[in-house]
Amino acid sequence: MTTWKELLDDKIPAEMGKLIDTYEAQMELRKQGKLDEKVFAESRLRKGVYGQRYDNGQRHDGVRTRELHYSSDEVVKGPDTLWDAPGMQRIKIPYGGLTAEQLEVLSELADEYSDGILHITTRQDIQLHYVHIDDTPDLMRRLAAVSITTQEACGNSVRNITACALAGVCHDEVFDVSPYADAMTQFLLGHDDVQDFGRKFKVAFSGCAGHACGLVKMHDLGLLAQTRELDGEAVRGFTVFVGGGLGTVPHQAKVLAEFCTEEQLLPLTQAIARVFARLGEKKNRNRARLKFLVAKLGIDEFRGLVEEELKTVPPDPRHTDYIPKVSDFVNAPAKAGMALNGAPLPDGFAEWYATNVYKQVQGGYSTITLNTPLGDLTSEQGFKLADIAREYVGDNIRLSVEQNVVLRWVADADLPAIYRDLLAIGLGDANAGTIVDITTCPGTDTCKLGIASSRGLTAELRARLIERINLLPDAVRDLKIKVSGCFNSCGQHHVADIGFFGNSRRSGNHKMPHFQVVLGGQWHENAGSYGLAVGAVPAKRVPDVIEALTERYVAERAEDENFQTWIKELGRKEIKAMLQPFTKLPSFEEKPDMFSDWGDSRVYTIDDIGVGECAGEVVSLFSMEISRAESTHFEALLALDEGDYALADENAYKAMVQAARALVRTKHLDVGDDYNNIVDEFRTRFYDTELIYDRFAKGKFARYLFNRHKESPARINEDYAHQIIDETQLFIENVHTAEQRINGVIVS
Amino acid sequence: MITTLPKRLGVKFSLKQQPQLQPDDILPIFQRWIQEGRVEGMLIDVIDYKHVPEGPGVVLIADEADYAYDLGDGQTGLHYIRKRDLPDDFAAALALVFHCALQGARALEAEAPEDLRFNFSSVKVSFFDRMNYRNESAVYDAIGGAVAEVMTGIYGAEISISRVYDDPRRLLALRVEAQSDDLDLADISRRLNASRQTV
After folding, report:
1. Could you tell me if A40 and A103 lie in one domain?
2. Above 0.90 for ipTM, yes or no?
3. Is there a domain that residue A216 lies in?
4. What is the pLDDT along chain B (199 residues), one digit of tens a residue?
5. Torsion sign, CA atoms A60, A66, A69, A73
6. For residue A404, which of A98, A176, A91 has the smallest C-alpha distance?
7. How far apart are CA B108 and CA B118, in angstroms?
């Protein structure tokens, strides 16, 4: 019987084939128990082969926790990760650029190895879910045969390099960044200097400062196109940003270099990577991203280290070999450009044109965005979309960071026809980039870290908003909603007008899915500023919260006032008061549906907690005490708004101690009010015993308290105040979760 | 004669007409099936794709197979896709997949007795394996007879068979129609059980 390896042998680049063969051999060694599970896990992750929810062999079915007995129960593909459990395959699509042939192969793979769905991520990757690990080597070979690699798609490596989907066709860009993103992808893939990171490293390119597109300010390394006149000649280069990132505590990137020339781009990146590999945290994963190193050293010291390192980077022809070919980079139409010719237009065309069509800088051409619900495409849509691409745009297909497909270089005269063709395959929905076009991470559907159903909420919001879209004022239509299933920021909730991240609260003896509301983030200006959490509301009340917020925004905003400004003007006190009615928690008996998540009929749970003892007054004491901590946290937010950063720090610290005290008092009522006693008791009873440990973040959140308690900050500024407030929020969430686990009579 | 088993094998029964029951209503049913072990297999989770036009709809994921309340081809139906642990013999494999699809469809009918009805005399059989079963007429010609033989045995009636998709990129799928006005599902089940016991 022929194998894919034999069939595709002459189409797979030798180096890629060798890496896949090695991986397949490692799989065999792991199955035989001859390769350490942790070593194999990192190797697997670097091939984009990820774990998925319930791969530890346990799932709560809404009534009880079930053991999932996979065929080879004894074999694991990583710690607590069973071999036969379905997993996720992440596939890197550099700067989101796809050919029609690649789209066809991806669609074939979704059919044969997954569940028929191609999922577009916020990093312009494609993900396939419910993939068996045994299928992954052939899956990779079939991708390699069309020049796609999954190498370093996950793990402590350089992730998919992203870029604006409009690069090369945009009115505002300085120049097309695509060839530079491509060159950096090729240069860094498998490079020796990027193999020893403590954590992942994310890179983004943007062609202009004003729009969102590349989101360079929220990346480990962000590159913003610039030109400068040097020696009388206009030369291309980049403003270099480092140390940005979302995650649990978002950091805005700092400017490392106002301008680096295109010749300096790759060696400078190499130097940054070498400094990160050498000095970045390795033991504590929670502090290992570049943003922590930059924050710890300060940008000036970090810059100095990079400049010194740059002197040691050995010459490499690849640093500049690509530059003469930049102008040849494929960015050309498949057909001659032509204006719309006055022919009758199909129904719905005008609405679609208004939101989904971007007039390119090149006359006679447009770029169109396919509003792709929840970033999902079927394999059948993939095949038909490849046909449409071939007919109208050739290989000019891109994926966007807003989880949509983008077709570039559509001749304007073809717009009605391509609209009809897209409608026929279910991809002709209008409203791309509007409030209905919501970004979401996988959440509890498939992610091991998910706390609440981000996809369920997004599907619900999308359906409701589409019903009302024509009634919404423009100011509301243009808002961005982004949803994450947990405090990590895969849904990019920090840079939305209205963001949400999943958490949970208890009411009586049950847990209820919640979403923390994050307001006032800025998508434009490359993720120019981050929103802050203003309060948690039950998941089932989120649609009401959006309605209340948007109605009030429309009623009270000044002419042309944008949402961020309005939120800032409104102030946290007023926002908190507005959210208050939605935060009331009914009992399970009163409103059982509130105890199920969106798109999930099970009674909500996030872990498999058994029936414990001593609820009653201890729990109510905890509730009272933790609410004090939350109030103090809110005071910190107000101080931040007023620019009193020292007070913000003082209140944030106090809120953490109060939260710790709330938990300590469930075991030791007489702990008193002395901060040292509280922190010592907390450490002994909950940290040293690992009772406070989050399943994935371990003791990270508790260490926020310990670090602040150990020493006052050397300098207090706005960035620092933001950070400590975010850390406090996370610590309070951690205490809530731990209390539920430790003390609760939790039945769901 | 089919000697190489496909990597995955699927059987889909379509509904006779659109029911009152909406895809939204299927999700709690599948969740309950997991609690009750209502259908065969190690049931893991339910995933909701009903937002995707003509997609897999709502899918009950199991270790060995997926049960999808499938919206594909503009025909809502129950699509059972066996992913692993197929018997070595093709006839037995197809009988097993047909049996599980039938069991799943009948379990769904029981959830909405007045409303949701499948057309059991027509079935789509899909080969999820482009290495060994490309969607080409030569492949169809080579395997059509073997599939027809197995399906005739299952239905206990004459059948007609045709290729579903012309597009060579799509999966090879066969439409099998039983030429009988009064199919007896109990008889079909007996034949399937006998076939499985023989294996």
Report:
1. yes
2. yes
3. yes
4. 788 999 999 999 999 998 888 888 999 999 999 999 999 999 999 999 999 999 999 999 999 999 999 999 999 999 999 999 999 999 999 999 999 999 999 999 999 878 899 999 999 999 999 999 999 999 999 999 999 999 999 999 999 999 999 999 999 999 999 998 788 888 898 888 877 666 5
5. positive
6. A98
7. 9
Give the pair of three-digit tokens for residue A103: 């789209």
Q: Cβ–Cβ of B52/A377 closer than 8 Å?
A: yes
* Alpha-carbon distance B8 to nearest alpha carbon in chain A (angstroms): 7
> Where is the domain boundary, A397, A424, A451?
A424
Q: Considering CB atoms only, which of B54, B84, B129 is closest to A426?
A: B54
Cβ contacts of A518 within 8 Å, gap of 6 or more: A493, A494, A496, A498, A499, A500, A501, A531, A532, A533, A534
Instruction: Provide the domain count of chain A.
Output: 5
What is the residue-wise DSSP string for A188-255?
Answer: HTT-GGGS--SS-B-EEEES-SSSSTT-GGGSSEEEEEEEEEETTEEEEEEEEEES-B-SSS-B--EE
Report the pLDDT value the prediction gives residue A610, as an integer from 0 to 100. 29
Residue type (1 letter), A577 = A
Residue A55, domain member (yes or no): yes
Q: Do B170 and A130 touch (CB under 8 A)?
A: no
With CA atoms as reference, the chain A residue closest to B5 would be A1
Is residue A102 within 8 A of residue A62, CB to CB? The reply is: no
In the numeric block, which tokens belong to residue A602?
């099970």
The single-letter code of the amino acid at A160 is N
- Give a yes or no: residue A159 inside a domain: no
Tell me the chain B residues in contact with residue A109 when contact means C-beta distances shorter than 8 Å: none
A413 and A440, same domain (yes or no):
no
Cβ burial of A527 (10 Å; 0-12, 13-18, 19+) is buried
Q: How far apart are the C-alpha atoms of A563 and A332, rounded to whole Å? A: 38
Return the CATH number at A235: 3.30.413.10
Domain boundaries of chain B, sorted by first residue: 8-198
Residue type for position B138 = A
Q: Are residues A179 and A313 in the same domain?
A: yes
Please give the helix or strand (H or E) that residue B137 lies within, else none. Answer: helix B137-155
* A200 and A64 assigned to the same domain: no
User: Tokens in use for A491?
Assistant: 């849904």
Considering only CB atoms, which chain A residues are within 8 Å of B129? Answer: 112
CA-angle at A584, arms to A579 and A589, nearest 5°: 150
Asked whether B59 and A120 are in contact (CB, 8 A), the reply is: no
Say if residue A591 is in the same domain as residue A455: yes
Q: A104-114 pLDDT, tens per residue?
A: 999 999 999 99
CB atoms A459 and B51 under 8 Å: yes
Rg (CA), chain B: 16
Q: What is the CATH number of the domain that holds A676?
A: 1.20.120.330
Whether residues A256 and A189 fall in one domain: yes
Task: For residues A615 and A547, state if they share a domain.
Answer: no
Q: How many residues does chain B have?
A: 199
Chains A & B: contacts with CB separation below 8 Å: 107
Q: Do B167 and A383 touch (CB under 8 A)?
A: yes
The reply to whether residue B56 touches residue A107, judged by beta carbons under 8 angstroms, is no
Which two tokens mark A744? 């609760």
| Helix (H), strand (E) at residue A439 | strand A439-440
Predicted TM-score (pTM) of the model is 0.89
Q: Among A111, A378, A380, whose Cβ lies nearest the Cβ of B128?
A: A111
State the CB neighbour count (10 A cutoff) for residue A64.
10
In a domain, A337, yes or no: no
- Among chain A residues, the shortest Cα distance to B71 is held by A378
Per-residue tokens: A698: 């371990």
Please list, in sequence order, all residues whose beta carbon lies within 8 angstroms of the beta carbon of residue B90, skipping any fewer than 6 positions away. Answer: B2, B3, B5, B146, B150
Q: Which amino acid is at A24?
A: E
Residue A74 structural domain: 4-144
d(CA A431, CA A355): 5
- Cβ distance B45 to A70 less than 8 Å, yes or no, reads no
